Amino acid sequence: MFGWSKQPELNVLVLRDADVIAATVRWALAEATADERPGLERAAALVEQAAAASDADLRARWVHERLAAAGHEGPADSVAAVKVLREAAPGLSLASAVQLSKDAAARRP
Prior knowledge:
Elements: H1 18-30, H2 37-51, H3 55-69, H4 79-88, H5 94-106
Helix pairs in contact: 1-2, 3-5, 4-5
């Protein structure tokens, strides 16, 4: 009605806060005792690794997490997977769910 031809689409937005986490770990590392250093150095490396992930990798991980939570064991780009995604995120359009599932299938966890 009134010119609206379809439902508003839910867009998946990737939020990154790895830079804040990295700064906190670096601060802790600078203040660390000798016993704390190895663990904090490992934490810093993990944060850097997480920060290096692309937006596409993060979206694929989100899809695979939703599918796993629903018990879906088939291909990420199947019709059943698209259905699971739309049930997990009710505002997600069919086109977005299909695209997300295709992208996730190309990036296996």
